[in-house]
Amino acid sequence: MKILVLNAGSSSIKFQLLDMTDTTVIASGIVERIGQTDAITSFEIGKNEHRSVMAIANHKEALQQVVHLLLDPEKGVVGNVDDITAVGHRVVHGGNEFTDTTLIDENVKHKIGEFASLAPLHNPHNLEGIEVATSLFPNARQVAVFDTAFHQTIPVKASKYALPSELFDEHHIQLYGFHGTSHKYVSQQAIDYLKLKKSKIISIHLGNGCSMTAIENGKSIDHSLGFAPSNGLIMGSRSGDIDHAIIFHLVNKLGYQLEDVERMISKESGMLGLTGFSDLREIQQAASDGDKNCQLALEMNAYRIKKYIGSYTAAMNGVDVIIFTAGIGENSSLLRAMVCADMNYLGISMDAKANKQRSDELFEIQSGISQVKILVIPTNEELEIANQVKTLLEQ
What we know:
The chain is an alpha/beta fold. It has helices at about 60-70, 105-115, 125-135, 155-160, 165-170, 180-195, 245-250, 260-265, 270-275, 280-290, 290-315, 325-330, 335-340, 350-355, 380-395; strands at about 1-10, 15-20, 25-30, 40-45, 50-55, 85-90, 100-105, 140-145, 200-205, 210-215, 220-225, 320-325, 365, 375. A hairpin with a 6-residue loop joins strand 3 (about 25-30) and strand 4 (about 40-45). The radius of gyration is 21 Å and the shape is globular. It holds the Pfam family Acetate_kinase. It catalyses: acetate + ATP = acetyl phosphate + ADP. One of its GO terms (molecular function) is acetate kinase activity.
């Protein structure tokens, strides 16, 4: 069984083609900086890597590029589109409608489109990926794996907002949670690695989108993103937590239109709004060169994460493991160090030398005196999605 996994983010598409007989990765890659003139496409087959830089205007063009590479007569690995049994799609928002992995039909696509207003940076791209894959792989089963599914275990006391109850009961306005595929995968990796029978884990997913999850005994019990993937931590272009009164002030006092405010909060804020840079690598370099705005933005980012660590430790009455994952979490030793600094009250102590290492595998970065394990775990949402797709098709 060969499964193609498509993971469409707000500015990138990751993909893997897996042989699920033994979970071998046949080919993998990523299209980054979508929407820019210098979009980067990386395509790996075994130890051979092909890289190109070109203008890619949108996610549809990016997906067409992925399929072109897979079918390329010289570089590709698929001779016929019918070699692919299924395409697994990461879908960010499933609302209350989808609580598990789901075969895609017209009704499912319609529902995913309905939830686009709740995840405007993601669901439209997820749906576009489904449409393109359906046309290019007409005989493959199309399957959706929802980010929100892992967070269905969050108790009502944490998922319900202090609004009139009919909004929760009738309109399902609540905390849904996101990045569930990633948080589920890395937390299970930590449990298996440390051989934990009981566990209190804080998973920190840091990429262009960022989130944190409190995970007790393998189940999500609280999460930093909410009704839509816009609050919580400071993200690449999203503001994270703000006082909602600011929105009314912008509209009623400063004359902004609601759509302008929505665009500002989702696409022009976060680290981009604070620094003018959209890539954390550029921000770190500028901070190192003395840019005060970039230095402050990094401090604000780390401070917000620290606050969530404190609140989730309180919610679980302790913490055994802290996990850093995703592109920034796995690669930014600077941000990890800033987050873990001066956390000795909670028993968190980092080993500076261990933190400097780079690896494609799980590694530990806590010091010898730390009471909490600090793990850097490369996320593998694609493998998690492929496993869920395989399980569904074999039922």
